[in-house]
Amino acid sequence: DEVRRKFFGTLYNTYSFFALYANVDGFTGQEPEVPMSERPEIDRWIISLLNTLVRNVTESLENYDPTPAARMIQEFVCENLSNWYVRLNRKRFWGGGLTRDKLAAYQTLYTCLETVSMLSAPFAPFISDRIFRDLNAVSGWRTLMFTLRRRASTIDETCWAIDIICSNSPSMSEESQTGKVERCTDSSVWRPLTAF
Question: I need a labelling partner for 148 at 20 to 30 A (CA). Which of 27, 34, 41, 59 fits?
């Protein structure tokens, strides 16, 4: 119950905050990227922490040690992203119009949410997949495609493998060499998550 309240609740609230204000301002994620060197120091700080998180979680998982990885993700979401970044930047999201500063804030929060959803997928696949798909359904930044292919066959059963292709190009072909590919559906608004 503590994990649901602390981690999932905080992640849910952070995404809901993003979705609410992004819909109000018409942020699609397809706007020109504000260069990192031109973003405020707090944006660069959270992205720096995010890069450190990616490195540390990857290292932990490659060493088959998932517990520290999960704890690092939880600490990043609960302490750094929600308690520091979102709280200190609320006024940037409240202002009227989609200014360059507000655009930088949206792009930074989007990057954090998308990266956290990918990092937390091994631990919480359903909410991670939902956030990832909802973010990318509007922005089209990445296309996640699943390919079901026959991997091996034994006398009693056929083994199937799921190939996951994550691309920066939303225009990947509908088929791959291994079979049919399903693509994320497009949408024009950020979908709020339903309560869990």
Answer: 59
Mean pLDDT per 10-residue segment, the chain (196 residues)? 81 93 90 94 96 95 94 96 94 87 95 94 91 84 49 45 40 33 41 54
In this structure, which long-range contacts are made by residues 115-120, counting pairs with CB atoms below 8 Å and at least 24 apart in sequence?
Answer: 115/50, 115/53, 115/54, 116/11, 116/50, 116/73, 116/76, 116/77, 116/81, 118/166, 119/53, 119/54, 119/57, 119/69, 119/73, 120/11, 120/70, 120/73
Q: How many CB atoms lie within 10 A of CB 170?
A: 15
What is the spatial distance between Cα 79 and Cα 96, in angstroms, rounded to a whole number? 28
Q: Which residue has the tokens 């991997």?
A: 151
Rg (CA), the chain: 18
Q: Exposed/middle/buried for 178, CB within 10 Å: 0-12, 13-18, 19+?
A: middle
Determine the straight-line distance between the first and last CA of the chain, rounded to whole angstroms.
12
Strand partners, 181: 147
